[in-house]
Structure formats: C-alpha cells, structure tokens
C-alpha cells in the first residue's frame, strides 16, 4: 500500500464504523482492517472511484470477502466469490479439531482417510491437508464454483504432493451420495459444517444478506439430519473405528448426543475456551465474541476422546 492510499484508510474506516454494518454471529468489528483491505482492493487505474464503489457495497451489507475476493482462515487467505459460502472464524475450531482427530488414526499401515461433506471454498479440508499432508482427503459439495475454488486454494496453499478428491452433488440431501465414480473407503474422520439450524432459528443480518442463508437450514427441518446420515453409513464409507467432527449450535447438542449414543457412538463437545484449555492457544485463530457455535467430536470402535 502506497503512502497515498494509506491516507484513505482512516476516512473509509470512519464510514464503515458509522454505517453500523451487521456482522456474522461472534465476529468482532475491525473497521481499520476492513478499510485497509478495501483500499488495497480498489482499482489501480482509478483508486478513488473504485474504492467509493467498494465502500458503498460494504455499507449496503455485501460481505467483505465478496468485495476483496479473499477471506483469512487460520492465517491463510482463501479465495472466495459470490455464491460460495465465506468461511466463518468459528469454523477455525472445526478445522483444528479435525487435525486432532486425524492424529488419532495416524501411524497405521494405511493413510488416514478424511471425508468433508460440504467443502465450500476448501478452508477446512485444505487447512487439514496443509498441517497433515499424509491425509487422503475426499469432499462433496453442491456448488461447482466452490469445487473450483477448493482446487485452486489447495494448489496455492498445500505443497505437492497431496491427495484431494472432490465430488459434486446436486441437492442438499444428496451430500452423501455423489461418490459413485471413485467412492472413499475406510474413512476415519468425517468433518462438516453442515446445515444445522431449524427454520425457527434466527440468522444474523450478515448471513441473511449473503444470498446463501437457505444453506443454514437442515433438510426436513431436522438439525440432527447430518448425524443420522453419517451414522447410518448406507454406502459403507466409514472405517470400524472412526470419528465425526461437526460444527453445531450449542442449543441442539442434547438432541445430537441422543442420536449419536443411540447409534453406539460416544461424544464430547468443544467451544474455543475448552480447546485452549486442552491444547493451548493457536496463534492462527482469529478472536471472536462469545457465540452459540460449538464443535462436537463423536467416535466409535477404537476411537477415543480428544480431551
């Protein structure tokens, strides 16, 4: 950023602060950071005019990542675009716990197998691969654009060689059925930030304006739908000993726990405070305000708790 463009940051930050833009649940406002990113994203040919358009769009509630083309996740910048869910800072906990779950099954003859359902821009799967390159990763996704971004983000952020096989499905309730050509087998870790809300749950203003709010709601209005699908495992993807790592809402955990225990799984629940108390603080995690975001870890067979 040049000295001239640096001078634009303070007035842009003031405009953003005055607009009282809605944030996603748990996010902390950092208008100076947002202003710097918008200034850096403005057209070099006509920075003032381009910046004015970007700021006007942000004030209208357009997500920052859609304006800058990137979102930071565990210290890495992931390419994003309209129509693809922007990774939430709460989901960083999901990725870090997925790494810990992979470690439970490392050391055997076979490479640890990971299946992410709903990869989005690839933030979770790519973050796991970057930290555990021996993982054999598979992922499903509704959006062709999201699959393209996941491939691009992986190629840019994960040193070769690595294994990442991606599959497109066409309906939310088909997230487990797109693996016909090359199905994963012996999956030891299933990870997902699935649709986990009921239609009575309130969404943040920022989520409502993203254009993708419908993806927050569970099929059949059942917040435990994802867990019922995984534990049934009709296609036989799962290893006898394996884990599920899933982002969820705190207020639905009792329902999730019932589904899991009735299917023969054990379960534990994490928030950020518990993660830090068990594993220590991660410098890559962005700060957040308290929210209802949680991550559950369930295991069966010779799996074991993370905490």
Automatic annotation (TrEMBL):
An annotated GO BP: methylation
E.C. no: 2.1.1.297
InterPro entries: DNA_methylase_N6_adenine_CS, N5-glutamine_MTase, SAM-dependent_MTases_sf, Small_mtfrase_dom
GO MF terms, alphabetically ordered: nucleic acid binding; peptide chain release factor N(5)-glutamine methyltransferase activity
Keywords associated with the record: Methyltransferase, Transferase
Boundaries of every Methyltransferase small domain copy: 114-202
Pfam families: MTS
Keyword Methyltransferase: yes
Alphabetized PROSITE patterns for the sequence: N6_MTASE
Gene3D superfamilies cross-referenced by the UniProt entry: Vaccinia Virus protein VP39
Catalytic class of the enzyme: transferase
Entry superkingdom: Bacteria
SUPFAM superfamilies the record matches: S-adenosyl-L-methionine-dependent methyltransferases
Name recorded for this polypeptide: Release factor glutamine methyltransferase
